[in-house]
Amino acid sequence: MGSTGVIGCNSLDVVRRLSPAWQVVALSAGKNMRLLKQQIDEFAPQYVSVQDEHSRQELIQLFHGRLPCDVGVGQAGLEEAASVPAHLVISAVLGAAGIAPTWRAISQGAVVGLANKETLVAAGDLIMEHVSVNGSSLVPVDSEHSAIFQALLAGKRQEVESFYITASGGPFRTYSVQQLKSVTLEQALQHPTWKMGAKITVDSSTLMNKGLEVIEAHHLFSAPYDKIKVLVHPQSIIHSMVEYVDGSIVAQLGNHDMRLPIQYAFTYPARVKLDLERIDFVKLRQLTFEEPDLERFPALRLAYEAGRAGGAMPCVLNAANEVAVQAFLEQRIGYLHIAEIVERLLQSSDYAVPRSISDALHIDEDVRRRAWLLIQKEELGQDV
């Protein structure tokens, strides 16, 4: 799910390398129909979903009117793609749009390779219960949680003292607040170590991405928030660490290539040779660490606060952030306004605890509506 995005393309490259042991049965994509056509030609899925009817018509034209597989449209098509019987479903749809299809994948008892962190942020308690009830399992695909997942193999869960999630610090790690006020969209889209989509690149620069990962780790590993620590690690070589009660620290290291954690999701608990550039420790010379500055990067603080508050607050955090980042990408608000909008929505929200995925999606929808209204009023210079 999300086959034409960065994670999706890397996942299909892993399938290509592991072929013929793995066969693609379904793909879902947004609007990049030319790339989707190439993927259909190569991997021959049974079912494909696209974002809208216009995209479907474009795909039909690319195949000269002869589609080689069934094609669904919109949210219904996405959920149908997630329901196609499969051993492994890679959930890489961006944002809250990935919640419902991930739920459907879990419902069929599949192993879910989770790259969509928003699913656990917005509905973590519900998702983890659903995993347990349906005999499914979640294997993290993002590098930080895959690192923790691997480090936990060294001991028992009750022996863990701390979880360390590393962050590159983003392109503005050394910026002052005054410099942050004038950050441009072009600057925010330049990540120092990873090649990612626009939304997650902006999230990485504000440290909101790390905040979402803290909440995700809380659910994935049943970890109390006071045991989850974030370390700024500019080299991005150590992806995460687990400290045990005896003082031992187990870390997972690797170069900046998403195919490593993605392939592990495919092959776990086994490991298969992967021809990637290896770390040269002599050339690397040093690894450095810093504490994150929560005053300059308040998004991380907001994520911890929302996570500890629980209930609907992580869902509010995620929805407000998605809207604020989109507004920044559209150059409707400034860089520092992203966290300000999120904080205002958190302070003014009092939703009941979501008891179902439908509840969580309704909260998500309402927060988005309120966030856009807030942005529109600010554009008009109105008091809110």
From TrEMBL:
Binding site for 1-deoxy-D-xylulose 5-phosphate: 117, 143-144, 168, 191, 204, 209-210, 213
1-deoxy-D-xylulose 5-phosphate reductoisomerase N-terminal domain boundaries: 1-124
Presence of keyword DNA-binding: no
Binding annotation for Mn(2+): 142, 144, 213
GO terms (BP aspect): isopentenyl diphosphate biosynthetic process, methylerythritol 4-phosphate pathway involved in terpenoid biosynthetic process
Residues that coordinate or bind NADPH: 4-5, 7, 30-32, 116, 118, 197
SUPFAM superfamilies: 1-deoxy-D-xylulose-5-phosphate reductoisomerase, C-terminal domain, Glyceraldehyde-3-phosphate dehydrogenase-like, C-terminal domain, NAD(P)-binding Rossmann-fold domains
GO terms for MF: 1-deoxy-D-xylulose-5-phosphate reductoisomerase activity; isomerase activity; manganese ion binding; NADPH binding
Cofactor: Mg(2+); Mn(2+)
Keyword vocabulary terms for this entry: Isomerase, Isoprene biosynthesis, Magnesium, Manganese, Metal-binding, NADP, Oxidoreductase
Record domain 1-deoxy-D-xylulose 5-phosphate reductoisomerase C-terminal: where: 138-221
InterPro entries in the record: DXP_reductoisomerase (IPR003821), DXP_reductoisomerase_C (IPR013644), DXP_reductoisomerase_N (IPR013512), DXPR_C (IPR026877), DXPR_C_sf (IPR036169), NAD(P)-bd_dom_sf (IPR036291)
Enzyme class, first EC level, given as a word: oxidoreductase
Domain DXP reductoisomerase C-terminal: 253-369
Protein function: Catalyzes the NADPH-dependent rearrangement and reduction of 1-deoxy-D-xylulose-5-phosphate (DXP) to 2-C-methyl-D-erythritol 4-phosphate (MEP).
Family the entry assigns: Belongs to the DXR family.
UniProt name for this protein: 1-deoxy-D-xylulose 5-phosphate reductoisomerase
Record organism: Alicyclobacillus tolerans
